[in-house]
Specification:
With 67 residues, the protein is an all-alpha fold. It has a domain of 33 residues. Helices cover 54% and strands 0% of the residues.
Length: 67
């Protein structure tokens, strides 16, 4: 039996790159309605970059100001 070595997952810096924000913008541009808790998660991860994109596509609510 061979012991497999684990490799670490994707680093936080890689996950929080511009690629993530591009993915968010692509979803919103396609007209996908994203519920508020999911938008809040985007803002927690990506900060003001996500907030600006969400506002641009008219899905920003007052509830998200609490973050």
């Amino acid at each position: 039996m061979t012991k497999s070595t684990r490799t670490p997952g994707v680093s936080r810096e890689t996950r929080l790159s511009d690629v993530g924000l591009e993915r968010l913008e692509k979803q919103l541009a396609a007209g996908i309605r994203v519920n508020t808790p999911v938008l809040a998660q985007w803002i927690r991860r990506y900060g003001d970059g996500a907030r600006k994109i969400i506002k641009r596509y008219g899905q920003y609510t007052a509830e998200l100001d609490l973050l």
